[in-house]
Amino acid sequence: MAVLVVCLVVLATVLLAFDKPRTYFALCWERPRIEQALKIYFAAEMAKDYDKVYQCLAPSSPYRQTHSYQDFIKDMQTSPVKIVDYKLVDIYDLRPNYDRRRYPRVERLAQVEVDVTILFTDTRRKSSANYCFTFLKEGGAWFKG
Prior knowledge:
Blueprint: H1 2-17, H2 19-47, H3 50-56, H4 62-66, H5 69-78, E1 81-96, E2 106-120, E3 125-138, E4 141-144
Antiparallel strand pairs: 1-2, 2-3, 3-4
Helix pairs in contact: 1-2, 2-3
């Protein structure tokens, strides 16, 4: 029994004292929630559900801070770019918000790398690209930054 207690104390110390193990376990915990936010965002993008896409954008994101909902709808309706497919590559760099003064509601940030297939509706040409998006956790929920 004493060996078990010592092992638990050592494990707890490692998790609390060292950043890498703590970050690894935090990412394991948050990953399904980030993936779900990503799926909802891309499903809305591909369905052209602009209301849902707007809801998926982080309220404190620079875009939402500088563009009204009407601006967003206009941008979406006039864009010749349509996302037709995506594939999650990786989620990494989960970190706390180090700029609380500028983004007081953001709890955490993470990088989400995806391969995206884009259709340019004006030329009917497709293109593939690799993007890295920042996702933000605000009020306990994950949003596209």
